[in-house]
Amino acid sequence: MEAYILDWLNLLLRWLHVITAIAWIGSSFYFVWLDNSLTRPDDPELLQKGVGGELWAVHGGGFYNPQKYLLAPKTLPRNLHWFFWESYSTWLSGFALFSVLYLFNAGTFLVDKHVLDMSATAAVFAALAYLVAGWLVYDAICRLFGDKPGGDRVVGVLVTLYVIVAVWVACHVFSGRAAFLMTGASLATVMSANVLFWIIPGQRKMVASMRAGQSPDPIHGKRGKQRSVHNTYFTLPVIFAMLSNHYSMTYGAPANWLVLLLIMLAGVLIRQFFVLRHKGVFKWQYPAAAVVILAGVAFWIVPKSALQPAQGVATTVSFAQARQVVETRCIQCHAAKPTLMPVPGKGILLDSKDGILQHAQQIYQQAVVQKAMPLGNMTNITDDERAVLGKWFEAGAKGE
Predict the structure, then answer these.
(1) Single pTM value for the model
(2) Burial (Cβ within 10 Å: 0-12, 13-18, ≥19) of residue 54
(3) Which of 9-13, 184-188, 340-344 tops mean pLDDT?
(4) For residues 154 and 204, is the Cβ–Cβ distance under 8 A?
(5) Is a pLDDT exceeding 80 seen at residue 369?
(6) pLDDT in tens, 178-198
(7) Cα–Cα distance, 301 to 361 (Å, whole number)
(8) Number of Cβ within a 10 Å radius of residue 18
(9) What pLDDT, on the 0 to 100 scale, is given for residue 93?
(10) DSSP bridge partners of 67
């Protein structure tokens, strides 16, 4: 029953996180597109009102005419919509999901003793510190250099260096799976904190100035725009990092930190293509470079020896030999009463003959081909033992 309840909690939190993320990313992408698609109005009346750009669009059987003021309208409308709950809800639901899946099972999911031998408690504090430190470093960069001449370029370079260092640190502290997720969570924290501490407060100060009959300080709009631009380039790398935990071929690869950086770079190039495309500029080089990078990574990390038996492994393997490996290396997590986890991993039970036969495909895929299981190789399975499982499966995964 405990496993059943945790599965439902996992499902509902994941569903909520995806729903809110769609709302946040959708509105973010829309406004980036809108900003890049506006044209200077021809109507003298609009120019007199301070409208700097407008757009005519048709959707759902109706016509729309959004307008953007150079600074702000002379009088504020009574109903002013604010975009912030999408961001906050996405981060809160994501952190709740991260807590349920990773923080409450830190010894299993955050720690890989072959990467860094630390306790579950230390791993929890390290994970929380990583999230906080990421925001503090990023925010300090923007504060120190963002308002200076050429600040956008300096900040861009320094933030890129920060991301490189952050990825390397994560992959040398946490398990590969957790490191990818932690990197995405760190960037997502930066994105949401930008909204919470800079974009929305800046907009509120501008509105307050106008309602007080004062001219709003344009610096708030400039800073909010700078942070918003960073958010849009972080988006695709964050989405990949969040999806990567389903694909051990990436986080389990040698030099996995470089794999993550290259795929994140591909995401940035794809986003840059669309940003320019919205401005009417077609630069095919960006998606082409992204495809080359992704193809290169795929070729680099393809398993070259996973299917080859190690020295000393018999050509034919019986079910009894395969079962011995499973009972020695797998049932600590995949049993009715696992010893290394509070509930059976993914609900898969391998503590019986029927369970092993039923999940033979998963055993082969995860333990032999991708070498993703056991997590962090916490049970110290050997290459010879993986080869035993591989030979048994390739011979038909028979129960005799």
Answers:
(1) 0.82
(2) middle
(3) 184-188
(4) no
(5) no
(6) 999 999 999 999 999 999 999
(7) 21
(8) 15
(9) 96
(10) 54
Whole-angstrom Cα distance, residue 34 to residue 28?
Answer: 10
Task: Return the amino acid letter for 54.
Answer: E
Cα separation values, 390 from 93, 201, 310, 315, 349, Å = 39, 58, 11, 11, 19
- Residue 165: HSE in the Cβ half-sphere, 13 Å Cα cutoff: 11
Q: CA 142 to CA 151: how far, in whole Å?
A: 8
| Concatenated DSSP letters of 111-172 | --TTT----HHHHHHHHHHHHHHHHHHHHHHHHHHTTSTTHHHHHHHHHHHHHHHHHHHHHT
Beta bridge partners of 204: none
C-alpha 203/C-alpha 82 separation (Å) is 9
Q: Is the peptide bond before 149 cis (omega within 30 degrees of 0)?
A: no
Residues, the chain? 400
Closest CA to 30 of 61, 66, 63, 62: 66
**Structure-token pair, residue 58:** 């048709």
210 C-beta neighbours (distance < 10 Å), count: 17
Tell me the two tokens of residue 386.
């993986």
